[in-house]
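Box 3.1 A note on notation
Throughout this textbook, protein chains are presented in two layers. The first layer is the amino acid sequence; the second is a token string describing backbone geometry. Keep the layers aligned when reading.
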Amino acid sequence: MGLSFLDLLKREKTILLDGGMWRLLQAKGLGDDPPELWNLTHPDRVTDVHRAYVEAGSRVVYTNSLGGNRLRLAQMGLADRLAEVNWAAVKAARAAAGGAVFVAGDISTTGAMLEPYGDLSRREAVEIYAEQARVLAEAGVGLFVVETMLDLAEACAAVEGIQSVSALPIVCTLSFGPGGRTMMGDTPEKAVRELTALGVAAVGANCSGGAREMLPVIQAMAGVAGIPLVAKPNAGIPELIGTDTVFPDSPAEMAEGTGRLAEAGAVLVGGCCGSTPDHLRAIRARLAEMKE
């Protein structure tokens, strides 16, 4: 690919990311298996999900490695297969991207709390993230995404871990609750300032309810941001209907909400939990209308 991700950020007003992974793998028979395990056992089905997003217009796809760090893999019984799992995640995404779409190495929380609230030291967290990032970089990602972070301190540790092993661009998004703060009380403005100081390429929010709930977060970030913003909301706030978790926003509803996020300043937009290629196609059409 001749264009770098940083060049793409400078050139495009809006860039379409991908959507959710878990729901689509469930439709393919995932059941109770960890999604990351399917990089090894069903790589063709993981590639099929990535390909569906590429065909929907996504310019960036996230590897199926959200839980691919040492601590999360240990909970799945996969601690000794970290390199295999992450390498296979990149291979599956690259098979769909075909050199025309950027593959982002997806990294998320360890599931442990940093000191003094938990037992995980900052130094250990940095090492854990560096370990995963090293494999993803060697496997050939074009950038990194740190996402669904509930603690700004851990997000910063993840960024530092990545930077210790790679010079690739980093996009970082946190998850914000109904009060517009992360689980640890971090504000959107604080997140932007601290992550910008670390040198990330873009910062923003993912998950965080639906597009309507995320809008005040992006607006707050836009007031202080000097780098591109990211908005990757859920397809609405999930509802439990019987034994099924249902995400209520239709593709048209999500597209309208995501359009408002773009108007508020988000450059990189996509979907998180509950979103599908149909949602992404609708978002793509809405972004095209906004450019006219």
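DSSP finds twelve helices and ten strands in the chain. The chain has a mean pLDDT of 96.
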